[in-house]
Q: What sequence folds into this?
């Protein structure tokens, strides 16, 4: 993603793989050409997903509009390094779910459901945090009730 290697529509076009005009649109908003920048930074639908994740920690901050800055962004409420690790895990899960959902919509003709995407982010974030982070000791029910509290403690 950082090296612009994702096979987004614009990247495929640069390799002489051209899609129809309709297939070139973002599968989420269906209004802009799909680029990595659009998909992760400016798509209004994906922006709402990011805002839900930020709402977990009561942080209404706008997200950076550059992919590298987006990756390096640490929300204001996080002051400890473990909290930053927790947020980076949520960030990685969110980008993975966005990309996975994009692929399901594009290649499997699956339909997009905002609530399902957010739920998947919540489930996989908890799985990754509880599996790979020794300091994360919250049950799934605690995580579902208040992910923000689990992230900021």
A:
């Amino acid at each position: 993603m950082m090296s612009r290697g994702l096979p987004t529509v614009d990247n495929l076009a640069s390799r002489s793989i051209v899609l129809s005009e309709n297939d070139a649109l973002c599968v989420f908003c269906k209004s802009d050409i799909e680029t990595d920048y659009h998909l992760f930074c400016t798509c209004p639908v994906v922006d709402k997903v990011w805002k839900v994740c930020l709402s977990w920690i009561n942080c209404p901050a706008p997200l950076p509009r550059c992919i590298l800055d987006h990756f390096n962004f640490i929300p204001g409420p996080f002051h400890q390094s473990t909290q930053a690790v927790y947020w980076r895990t949520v960030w990685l899960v969110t980008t993975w779910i966005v990309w996975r959902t994009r692929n399901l919509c594009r290649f499997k003709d699956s339909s997009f459901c905002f609530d399902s995407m957010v739920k998947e982010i919540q489930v996989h974030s908890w799985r990754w945090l509880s599996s790979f982070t020794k300091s994360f000791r919250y049950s799934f029910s605690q995580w579902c009730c208040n992910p923000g509290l689990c992230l900021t403690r």
